[in-house]
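Quick one, T. Sequence first:
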Amino acid sequence: MINNNIKYLAVLALGLVACEPEFDNPIEDAGTYSSGEADFSNYVALGNSLTAGFADGALYITGQENSFPNILSQQFSKAGGGDFTQPLMSDNVGGFAEDTNTFPPRLVLAFDAEGNPGPERFTGASPSTSISANLGASFNNMGIPGARVYHLDFAGYATLNPYYGRFAQSPTATVVDEAVAQNPTFFSLWIGNNDILGYATSGGIGEDHNETENLDPSTYSVEGYDITNNNVFAGAYSGLVAKLAANNTEGVLLNLPDVSSLPFFTTVPFAPLSPLDPSFGPQIPTLNATYAGLNGAFAFLGVPERSIQFSTTGASPVVIKDESLTDISAQLVPVLTPSLGAAQAAIFAAQYGQARQATAEDLLVLTSSSIIGQLNENRIAELVGFGLTPEQAGQLAVNGVTFPLEDQYVLTPAEQASVEAARTAYNATIEGLATENGLAFYDVASDLAQAANGGIPFSGGVISSDFVTGGGFSLDGVHPTPRAHALVTNGILDAIEAAYGGNLTRVNPADYGTITVSNEVN
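Structure tokens:
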């Protein structure tokens, strides 16, 4: 029985990976700086976790202090910018003290007994941030982890999201109205990622409301798995801009990156099953012989492309469930019954009615790495309930091998197309509103695409989207490192100068850290 984890990380040379990010990042001044037509005296940032400084699967002080809005405010201070305040967490552990299941501590890079590195939750201290305590003040950084575009103008969002509840001025407040109440002279808005990201990171288990044509976001998945309808997005986003840009307030809008730019979707290979693996290789002949009957049924039913075959000489793709395929379970039963009997034929048919092996076009999510090759205990219990022995059930319940990887672990081409269609529409709305309102526009999607395709050079190296070693993304595979926040800051500064003129100093990404290798985070 296969019982190993698929390893997607090579042993790292620790000298290539920075530890804690720097708190102070001095840059030599090289001239006189000015804001041009912009006024940075009161800068307010709105958005989601990307704006808040969320990283490594949690919100913690160092991530907040190295968020792009905070770095940006430091550059603004050289050209008339004022103070910039943030609702800092209580520690560098991350998570909330009262609910570590929903809001766990941050991830750190840990090493197992064999020296293999991988992300693990920090256990060296307990979270000390209260989920219910309100800080009693307004803040310039109004990035709210988990927020979607329509949440920023939703009265009562503070009662649903504890990150906002920590500093909302009232239970019925809205994020955008509280931002406007601070009379900002300049704003940034980076929102909309969660309107597609929850669908993508969950392997497309939610609904695409461009297909359902559902225009009521109050009925969308409370877990955030659905794609926001394009018209809902456009209406909500334009409403935010109208409030923020009133009285000709200057600002910058950021667009949304392609999910294929994120290591959460590009780290786990579609073909991770190696014949050299001692727990898998010796079983390949038996597996192929077992699948021969099913493959014959696929050929008989006219879908030979669904055949499952493992290689004895090279890496093999995992077996996945693809819900975009026609379910042929009912047709499989009579074909398989003569050789398997009616009971087992029904089990095989249900298990493989929408199965195929993965291709290079499929994106396996980062969380799949820990379950590929593992026994699926839930499936074993189901099969035993159908009358199989525990041993028989185990043979049919190896994730990605004899039991197709479930939907939440794979973003198929059809699901990717849904995400990309929505993202394209959202980005058209964002850029159009920037032009219409005379606001700066930063095409962050292009920079992240470059990071994913060759990397972005800077003085001191190259930043890429390679997981752990690339320096661009934290250990959750989605959120930027401080070094990437520095790159985003420079991109925003370029966009501001293009729109408003002036002369603004850039930051050196080399002065900012990447991931934490040690468990000592406090």
